[in-house]
Write a structure and sequence with these properties.
The complex is a heterotrimer of chains A (about 350), B (about 325) and C (about 325).
Chain A: H1 2-9, H2 11-18, H3 20-35, H4 42-67, H5 75-88, H6 90-93, H7 95-119, H8 124-143, E1 148-149, H9 157-160, E2 162-164, E3 167-168, H10 169-187, H11 189-199, H12 201-206, H13 211-237, E4 239-240, H14 248-258, H15 270-289, H16 294-314, H17 325-334
Antiparallel strand pairs in A: 1-4, 2-3
Chain B: H1 2-30, E1 37-42, H2 50-64, E2 67-72, H3 77-89, E3 94-97, H4 106-114, E4 119-122, H5 128-131, E5 136-139, H6 142-157, E6 160-167, H7 173-188, E7 192-200, H8 205-219, E8 225-228, H9 231-243, E9 253-258, H10 261-269, E10 274-277, H11 280-295, E11 303-305, E12 309-312
Parallel strand pairs in B: 1-2, 1-3, 3-4, 4-5, 5-11, 6-7, 6-8, 8-9, 9-10
Antiparallel strand pairs in B: 10-12
Helix pairs in contact in B: 2-11, 3-4, 6-7, 8-9
Chain C: H1 5-42, H2 49-74, H3 83-96, H4 98-101, H5 103-127, H6 132-150, E1 156-157, H7 161-167, E2 170-171, E3 175-176, H8 177-195, H9 197-207, H10 209-214, H11 219-245, E4 247-248, H12 256-266, H13 278-297, H14 305-326
Antiparallel strand pairs in C: 1-4, 2-3
The chains are: A mainly alpha (about 350), B alpha/beta (about 325), C mainly alpha (about 325).
């Protein structure tokens, strides 16, 4: 126990905990490369990235919303609806325009969410649960619960074929999205305002930030990203189905949280999300290659998620702010020695 | 300080990559003839029919000295399409796919064909475009199963009556095949049987139980027959009928599919009138043997059915349940 | 006594308060009455003994879980998303261990395992103050995976038809046993919440955690208790489901968490904590079940029913928020 305390008190451990996302990602990469033959081949990497891209697109939207302190459970249903719209309108509008309309579906659903949360002041968990049920119902009603096929299965092939090196169109699209997110969050005033809104919407408004606008915009953005993911996904498989996207929201939330974004709002980053996504993608690919049964995969993913949120809680202060190294050391040191009058 | 951590991490990663780079070379020099690698994408791991089919597949693989990597879609089409891509990139000697959707896997199948990897479909067929891309489809014909069920129902009801359909997962090819086969056959026979309502119970006994309660409430004794897409859901209806305190002697004519042990017992007891026997063991074994043959570049039949038998009171004593 | 302007305003506020309070109380029951009238007009089968019994039976399994979810909401624990997993572990263990231990001991083990999972939730959420949504999600995933690993990932079949007979039978040929079990737990839950110290603490923690802390209420323990309780109740539901069906799949509990949240929310129990009660949650559950029943009798397919449910949730919460802003809480 004393040895543990000594480790807990040492600087390098504290540092490690602070960059825990990077550590977990690297650990995953190491384990995967050692256990899976050919993991580091460009083809395999490209595949992992392509798989991650659908979740990644939704994650970009969710990161923004979570930083603003809100949740969105309707992403999967929006994904399905966008796909259905994209495929069903192909005959009448042509594939390109139909895809654009599919993306526009996100604007409609996002506005619905914004209306429920910002205008009617319904809690986002409950509001997006309601919109999820409604959108999913529309999906089934519109298709009579049958999946629909597009006219030309080869139109959408470009989505998942290699475009730049081993990276597919989908991966490149995601890459652009995450890059733009990073720039916006870290380098613009409005990005910084988002954090303020997430930490405390009331005081942000008092300081002149139009919190309601940010929140509404956040919901629209998250829905649009889900719609983009759905459009692209449906084009790739040339099918629109009301059954798509059933489990994707929970996986995406897990990836974003592993990346350090908190559900309480006010903290998060594009790089963190990228780290979380990569970790999940590599982990799943590696486990599949190793013939690991699905339920064991669940245990591993759940355990990593749990580990990270516990660590995250350990390095956060009362207001969920990231503690400084000094404060962390004091906290860990406090477990060992009686308080010497040092207050947090 | 942070730089030191990052630096250490980077060095460790580089070392691991170097190790990983060495590993395959070492392996290749020690093994002489590599066993065949088959990538098997199954519908689910925990399912009444799928589980024995998977077991049979793996057992047949062991007998043939073939390595199998099994991935489970867990009834999610999206996951399946991604897993198909994963399989293709692993460049196995063959791929066996259990399709949950008639068209969604086409792009993956195209990639497989381009890479020269033979693909065999197990249990459920796909649309025409997809069938051109695969070496073979082995397994029961779900449409035929539906048709046989339709015939059994028509015989049991003497050509007229009202039935309800408890269908499987909405949008699933097996659901569509069996249901459309059933209604199509009734039409062909010129039957006066009417379908009152179709509900989806996702091949799940519990959901079928809940749906059946409502059907019984809605139509009560007006139900002359029940076609359940599988025996598990038929069980749900029987439970609901009992639960509603209804007379077991007046239970509607229930037709299921699969040929499960409990269905056989129900037919003997008069609770069900028919089931369509299909062997998951046959299904799994046939698929494996076909893919091995295809991988060895032998010619295979494009459509290899497994035998289906209509089981009624008349022949239930002479047959063995599938599982 | 002359009325000053301020007391005029006061009495207006008081009338508004009273109006809002009354409305909050009668909204759901009144709505249910409206539904029942509508249902009987729409279908002759609706107002029958067998249909009513069906609705009650359908409510029973969800109802047990709703009791737990009410506690979670009231202590401001947000929501427990591990319910499908804890229900599954209850069912899987009850059936899997049945042959070795006997049905009832196996059921007990199932419930205990589920409660243990709930305790893990409680420890992390109450003591380590990790976010409830993500914690219950993570713990649920791990628990379900472990349960499946325990039985080798296959479906578990039961071997005790007698317990199935018992659970699906009716007392005096009229009242289903399962409804009695549900009623027992609903009443117990209500008494726990309204008449015990734990109940009072739960309300205190939910409405004002800082004040509760200052009044020496064991905040962390109360919050943890809500999750442990929900875990145990979900496990019990899973056990009952497994024993009634005599099969248990890992997905046996899917959807029950959102069903419970829907019921609680429609009943007017606030996500923000501190208000509501078990009877109100039950009223919400009844409302949702009656609505579903009407839709089914009208032939509305399963999935499209979600449209009505979603609108219902949005409407119920919006109404609740509006009433809160107009008058007092509770």
């Amino acid at each position: 126990m004393n040895a543990l305390r000594k480790i807990g008190d040492s600087s390098w451990f504290v540092e490690l905990v602070r960059v825990r996302v990077l550590v977990i990602l690297l650990a995953t990469v190491v384990v995967a490369s050692v256990t899976v033959q050919g993991f580091m081949d460009p083809g395999t990497i490209g595949l992992s990235l392509d798989r991650m891209s659908t979740i990644g697109l939704i994650a970009v939207g969710l990161t923004v919303l979570l930083i603003a302190g809100q949740l969105d459970l309707s992403g999967g249903a929006v994904l399905a609806l966008a796909g259905i719209v994209t495929i069903s309108l192909q005959a009448s509008l042509g594939p390109g325009v139909a895809a654009a309309v599919g993306v526009l579906v996100g604007v409609v659903t996002g506005s619905l969410n914004g209306l429920l949360v910002v205008v009617l002041k319904i809690n986002s968990l409950v509001a997006t649960l309601a919109s999820m049920l409604m959108v999913r119902a529309i999906c089934h009603w519109a298709t009579d619960s049958h999946p629909i096929s597009g006219k030309d299965p080869f139109f959408g092939l470009f989505v998942s074929t290699a475009l730049i090196g081993p990276l597919t169109f989908r991966t490149v699209l995601f890459g652009i999205a995450i890059l733009l997110l990073w720039v916006w969050l870290s380098r613009t005033v409005s990005g910084r305002n988002l954090y303020a809104v997430g930490s405390n919407a009331v005081s942000a408004t008092a300081s002149g930030v139009r919190s309601n606008l940010y929140l509404f915009g956040g919901f629209v953005f998250a829905s649009v990203m889900a719609a983009v993911a759905g459009t692209v996904q449906s084009l790739a498989v040339n099918t629109g189905s009301p059954a798509f996207g059933q489990t994707i929201v929970m996986t995406t939330i897990a990836a974003v949280v592993i990346g350090g974004t908190r559900l309480e709002g006010g903290r998060g980053s594009a790089l963190g999300t990228l780290g979380g996504l990569l970790t999940i993608a590599f982990l799943v690919t590696a486990m599949e290659y190793q013939n690991v049964p699905a339920y064991v995969q669940d245990i591993v993913t759940g355990a990593i998620l749990l580990l990270l949120i516990i660590l995250d809680s350990a390095v956060s202060g009362k207001n969920h702010n990231l503690l400084t190294i000094a404060a962390l050391k004091r906290r860990l040191g406090r477990n060992q020695t009686p308080p010497e009058g040092i207050t947090q | 300080m942070r730089k030191m951590i990052a630096g250490t991490a980077a060095i460790v990663t580089a070392a691991a990559l170097a190790l990983a780079g060495c590993a395959p070379a070492a392996q290749q020099s020690t093994t002489a003839a590599k066993p065949m690698e088959i990538c098997y994408i199954t519908a689910a791991e925990s399912h009444a029919y799928a589980t024995p089919a998977n077991e049979a597949f793996k057992a047949a693989a062991k007998d043939a000295g073939v390595n199998v990597t099994m991935l489970s879609q867990n009834f999610d089409v999206q996951t399946g399409t991604e897993q198909l891509n994963t399989c293709v990139s692993r460049k196995p000697d063959g791929i066996v796919l259990w399709p949950l959707d008639p068209t969604a896997y086409v792009s993956g199948l195209t990639a497989a064909k381009a890479a020269g990897i033979p693909v065999v479909l197990i249990n459920t067929p796909m649309g025409d475009k997809a069938m051109e891309l695969v070496a073979s489809f082995t397994g029961p014909d779900v449409t035929q199963e539906g048709q046989m069920s339709g015939e059994a129902m028509n015989t049991a009801l003497g050509g007229k009556g009202n039935v309800v359909i408890i269908a499987g997962q909405a949008g699933n090819a097996t659901t569509i095949g069996r249901t459309d086969g059933f209604t199509g056959k009734l039409k062909d026979l010129g039957s006066a049987i009417k379908v009152l309502q179709t509900v989806n119970a996702d091949f799940d006994q519990q959901k079928a139980l809940v749906a059946s309660r409502d059907l019984i409430t809605r139509f009560g004794d007006g139900i002359d027959g029940v076609f359940a897409n599988d025996d598990t859901m038929a069980r749900g209806f029987i439970d609901a009928w009992k639960e509603a305190g209804k007379d077991m002697k007046k239970i509607p004519a229930i037709v299921g599919v699969n040929g499960q042990k409990d269905a056989f017992q129900s037919i003997k007891d008069g609770e069900m009138v028919a089931t369509i026997l299909q062997s998951p063991v046959e299904d799994g074994r046939l698929a494996l043997n076909t893919i091995v043959a295809a991988a060895k570049k032998q010619t295979v039949e494009h459509r290899i059915p497994i035998p289906l038998t209509s089981v009624t009171k008349d022949n239930v004593g002479t047959l063995q349940p599938a599982f | 006594m002359t009325q000053t302007t301020s007391s005029q305003a006061e009495s207006r506020v008081m009338v508004q308060n009273r109006f809002s309070n009354v409305l909050q109380w009668i909204a759901v029951p009144a709505g249910t009455v409206v539904l029942i009238v509508a249902g009987s007009l729409l279908s002759p089968k609706f107002l029958t003994m067998s249909n009513a019994t069906n609705v009650l039976i359908n409510m029973s399994i969800s109802g047990i879980i709703v009791v737990g979810m009410t506690f979670v909401f009231i202590t401001r624990g947000m929501a427990d998303l591990s319910v499908p997993a804890t229900a599954a572990i209850g069912g899987i263990l009850a059936l899997g261990l049945g042959p070795a231990l006997g049905t009832l001991p196996a059921a007990l083990v199932g419930i205990l395992a589920a409660t243990a999972a709930g305790c893990v939730n409680g420890l992390l959420i109450g003591y380590a103050r990790v976010n409830p949504v993500i914690t219950t999600l993570a713990v649920g995933t791990i628990v379900l995976g472990t349960a499946q690993a325990f039985v080798g990932g296959v479906i578990v079949y039961g071997q005790d038809p007698q317990i199935k007979e018992f659970l699906t039978s009716r007392l005096f040929g009229v009242v289903p046993v399962i409804v009695l079990v549900f009623a027992a737990f609903a009443v117990a839950g209500h008494l726990l919440l309204s008449r015990t110290v734990l109940g009072r603490w739960s309300y205190a923690v939910g409405s004002n955690p800082d004040a509760a802390q200052a009044s020496a209420v064991p905040v962390r323990r109360t919050k943890a208790a809500a999750f442990a309780l929900t875990g145990g109740l979900a496990g019990l539901s899973g056990v009952l489901l497994g024993l009634t069906l005599q099969t248990a799949r890992p997905a046996i509990g899917t959807g029950y968490e959102f069903n419970a949240i829907t019921a609680v929310v429609v009943g007017g129990v606030s996500l923000l904590g501190g208000s509501g009660s078990v009877p109100r949650a039950m009223a919400g559950l009844l409302f949702v079940q009656v609505l579903t029943n009407i839709m089914v009798l009208q032939g509305v397919p399963t999935e499209p029913q979600g449209l009505a449910k979603g609108l219902l949730i949005a409407g119920a919460v919006a109404l609740d928020v509006w009433l809160r802003n107009r008058g007092g809480a509770k």
